[in-house]
Design a protein that fits this description.
The protein has 176 residues and is an alpha+beta fold. The chain folds into two domains: 1-32, no CATH class; 43-170, no CATH class. The chain has six helices and six strands. It has helices at residues 2-8, 13-17, 19-26, 69-77, 85-101, 111-130, and strands at residues 44-55, 61-63, 67-68, 138-147, 162-165, 169-170. Strands 1, 2, 3, 4, 5 and 6 form a six-stranded antiparallel β-sheet that branches. Strand 1 (44-55) and strand 2 form a beta hairpin. Helix 1 crosses helix 3, helix 4 (69-77) runs antiparallel to helix 5 (85-101) and helix 5 packs antiparallel against helix 6. The longest helix is centred in the last third of the chain and has 20 residues, at 111-130. It is globular, with a radius of gyration of 19 Å. 14% of the residues are buried. The mean pLDDT is 84.
């Protein structure tokens, strides 16, 4: 609670001296923004897919099929009168934080960018493990972005605007 206090308090010598420590603890868990009061509705649909890989005993790499992480979120929210805020926003906000902190080449150049990459990777790895993926040591994400269909265009899927393939990331704690 003291770190959150230093984060929201006016700038002072203590908060300035310990800013890296404070920010590493506060973000991404207590990110502040005004979206609750002035929401910024999505103008695109993002499908976030993941696949895992493990190294076999002979040194060969085995990759799993793609798994739709976004579909899990959608099904967790569908037909729920009071859907979980986590189910609605965790993956979406992790992706937004990743995009905001990384350049188009997906290289983490700041501590915040590395943290957002690890956060997104951990969410994807935990969900892939819960999906029943076998032990794995690497994960890769693919994000397909499509515009939201205009009214009256039902039946014609919108053409993807972006199909972004992220590099393989090493993960720990998932069996390999």
């Amino acid at each position: 609670m003291f770190l959150v206090f230093l984060h929201v308090a006016p700038a002072n010598p203590v908060s300035q001296q310990y800013s890296p420590v404070i920010n590493s603890w506060v973000y991404p868990y207590f990110e502040q923004n005004w979206r609750l009061f002035a929401p910024d509705p999505e103008s695109v649909n993002r499908q976030i897919l993941a696949r895992t890989a493990h190294t076999g005993p002979d040194g060969s790499v085995h990759a799993s099929p793609w798994f739709d992480l976004s579909a899990v979120d959608t099904s967790a929210v569908a037909h729920q009168p009071f859907p979980s805020h986590t189910a609605q926003n965790m993956l979406r906000r992790a992706w937004a934080g990743y995009v905001d902190s990384h350049a188009g080449d997906d290289k983490a150049r700041t501590e915040r960018a590395r943290m957002m990459q690890k956060y997104l990777g951990n969410i994807a790895a935990d969900r892939a493990a819960a999906h029943g993926s076998t032990a794995f040591g690497f994960i890769q994400l693919r994000v397909v972005t499509r515009p939201i269909a205009a009214p009256g265009t039902a039946g014609r899927p919108p053409t993807p605007v972006e199909n972004r393939l992220l590099p393989w990331w090493k993960v720990t704690g998932h069996g390999e």
